Amino acid sequence: MPAPITLDTPLRYAGPPPKACDVVVLGGGVIGVMTAWFLAERGFSVTLCEKGRIAGEQSSRNWGWIRQQGRDLAELPIMMESMRIWADLSQTFGPELGFRQEGVMYLARSHKEMAGFEAWMGQAQAMGLDVQLQSTGQVYDHLKGAAVEWLGGLFTASDARAEPWAAVPLMAQGAVARGAVLVENCAVRRLDVQGGRVAGVYTEQGRIGCEQVVVAGGAWSSLFLAAEGVHIPQLSVLASVGQTVPLPEVFAGNAADDRFAFRRRQDGSYTVAPGAVHDFFIGPDAFRHFGAFLPVLKKDFKSTKFHPAAAKGYPDAWRTPRRWEGDAVSPFERLRVLDPKPNLRALSQVQDNFAKAFPHLGRPALQRAWAGMIDTIPDVVPVVDRVAAISGLVIATGMCGHGFGIGPGMGRVVADLVADHPVGHDLHRFRLARFSDGTRLVAGPTL
After folding, report:
1. Domain residue spans in the chain?
2. Is domain 23-435 annotated with CATH 3.30.70.20?
3. What one-character-per-residue DSSP string does 370-439 give?
4. N or C end: fewer C-beta atoms under 10 angstroms in the chain?
């Protein structure tokens, strides 16, 4: 039976890496893989280095949602493009990808939530999204046998789902077919910067000469960048997920309220998760970026479980090194895959809430549970930009739990950013300088 990808997953791309290429992509999640895919299509020689396994972290541990609904309005055009790319990928890879457009339904228990839905809907409809407000009766038409007294909902019929454990490895195959070189168990330790320009990278398998580097390292990006003197306010939160045993269908798409979320899977089971609850591990960066994250923290304080320290080797663990040289073992080799333990208490509450919502199904048994570390930014939108201080360095990180769905579209954008081609979207909100130029950070929608 498929499962989240770990170090026990067989090595598929053993290398060795080439001595030189045009671009090195750091990170084998969906953003890095699709960036490599599109760079290869544009004729670049590209090498993707992954310290552990392709999709070994959040890209195989997410909910499997592909949603336009609820996006920051600066992300929405890229996400709408991404949906079109997902449809093309489905034609390429077939049913194994798990892509189906069955819609996303947000459910409201309060009038305040409904007002938020309506306000976002008006702006999204103006951008061409097929999103509609739903009455209580319409919600119950969608969710068979539901017993919760939801006041209404927000529904986007064109939103979709896919199977994360299968999708990103398939994308990796597609990138290789287009000429990209992928190497697992190959941590990039440091940049080789000469005269203020990228000249290569130092990896555990040797130096790779290159003119450009894309940092798409997810939860590890800020640790890598800080060693190069580039600082971004990025922290990570733990999100727990479970898979039920097969159950009768109550909704073919994805749905969530403030207490639980679920997605129908190909095998008839459901992916379930807390609607808002997550765990946060306090470390040095938490103190360093406390002020920047305070507005978001105030909103999510009740739904956040705080822990005094992360596990050994985690990016913001107290004893994780912050400095190392290119010829020395780095933190990325010491912990190749973030494989945190899920919060079983939170998942137990999800089981209870699912049973209250669908009493005819009873309390769903879980056949497995897992967790992932989500890289977050204070305004809940990513950093996608060139680094002015180091020519040839591009950042694509901080997808804030939204990376799986937007990954194909964002990969196309990043590839064209690297290629100095028109990206077709306004990236101003995602610029690196917003953290230092006095810009007031405004958090994206918390729908």
Report:
1. 23-435
2. no
3. EEEEEEE-TTSS-EEEE-TTSBTEEEEE--TT-HHHHHHHHHHHHHHHHTT---SS--GGG-GGGGTS-P
4. N
Phi-psi label, residue 28: left if phi above 0, alpha if psi -120 to 50, beta otherwise: alpha
Whether the Cβ atoms of residue 375 and residue 268 lie closer than 8 Å to each other: no
For residues 33 and 25, give the distance between their C-alpha atoms in angstroms, rounded to a whole number: 8
From CA 158, how far away is CA 322, in angstroms rounded? 44
Residue 353 exposed, middle or buried by CB count within 10 Å (0-12, 13-18, 19+): buried
Terminal CA-to-CA distance of the chain, rounded, Å?
Answer: 33
Cα separations in angstroms, 289 against 233, 235, 285, 314, 394: 6, 8, 6, 17, 22
Distance in angstroms (rounded) separating the CA atoms of residues 252 and 427:
34
Q: Please indicate, yes or no, whether the overall pTM of this predicted structure exceeds 0.90.
A: yes
> Cβ neighbours of residue 188 under 8 Å, at least 6 residues apart?
24, 26, 49, 51, 201, 202, 203, 213, 224, 332
- The residue among 71, 74, 69 whose CA lies nearest residue 426 is 74
